[in-house]
Amino acid sequence: MLLKSEIEDAFHLQQSKLNNKAVAAIKRTGAEKIDLDNTSIQVISGVRRCGKSTLMQQLMKAYKHVAFLNFEDPRIFNFSVNDFPKLDEVIPKETKAYFFDEIQNVPEWERYVRQLHDDGKKVFVTGSNASMLSKELGTRLTGRYLNTELFPFSYNEYLRFKKEKATVKSFENYLLKGGFPEFLTSENSEILQNLLKDIVYRDIAVRYGIRNSKTLVDITLYLISNIGKETSYNSLKKTFDIGSANSVSDYLNWLEDSYLLFFVQKFSWSAKSRQVNPKKVYTIDNGLARSNSLSFTSDFGRLLENLVFLHLRRSGKTVYYFRERRECDFVVFEQNKCTAAIQVCYELNRDNKDRELDGLTEALTFFKMKKGIIVTLNQSDQFKIGDKEIVCVPAYLFFNDPVN
After folding, report:
1. Residue 404 domain-assigned?
2. 41-86: per-residue pLDDT in tens?
3. Structural domain total, the chain
4. Domain end call among 150, 172, 192
5. The sheet that has 388-394: what strands, in order across it?
6. How many CA atoms lie within 13 Å of 345's alpha carbon, on the beta-carbon side?
């Protein structure tokens, strides 16, 4: 337990810094869904350093009397559920809106948040662990919250941040640098290297009591270096000499819960088949991948594929990869129906054209669709194959189109 004076000092110092801080005005994708008039608890989840705190500070402007507390402040590192009554004494009585950053660090935080909600207060919380948030929210706050996921900048957000237009050149820069706001300001790779360490060590190894953190780091770096490639529990078990596939499964689940990596299943109507087949791995940000992997710095095709995945994941759609005789990079589902088939090819040429078209048309035939998309760096083209229409779209237009 903390002293009331310790909580008071941390709270007032954070409030004073907040009041003196200029807040960036970049409009975030998805922020428009946050209804300030809705009485539900508003949860903002996402990877570390993607802008959750800044978004909260933007939302604070709508309220006259607010309270803000970041639970990652070292001065309140040991904050427990028993310290919330002291926090109540510190926060001014006229406060109508509460903003809590990284509240997942406090066990049983949801008890206090529910109390505030039941008392008619508006509450915003952020967190960077999807599973932990959903478990705690689902236990005591069912029906009382709305969740908004935040990612590093999308291409459109990147353009607004950099004050650039949608061109091949601006997209190439985004392809390589990614969308973490702090990195885009300084372009210091150490920022993204330290971010990876924070996620792996603080958010996973320490939180879940992993004694052999080196193996976790090795797996993480290996997967980040193999974006767009298939992986399985057993293959990783053998590669890293891990005792059981269950341990590997835990590692991958924790990496995904932290929003660092994502695993895409091979499409099958059978849920069991989807579980046992190899999965493709993608990461939260190209800049982070390039800053932490020497072998991944110049594979532009996989960088582009990763961005297309993130674009689809950001939109909340369910995504699989498809393979029968050939392969299609992404098939997109909405309400249990396949609505899009997308192939990604950095540069379509004589050597790869038939392979890319065959994989896409096979997926279109399987799902009884007529139109498919190939996302390229800067090529525009159309192909008619039987009753199928294939459209090649330059990436800077694909990502700039609100329909996609």
Report:
1. no
2. 999 999 999 999 999 989 999 999 999 999 999 999 999 999 999 9
3. 2
4. 150
5. 318-323, 327-334, 337-344, 371-376, 388-394, 381-385
6. 25
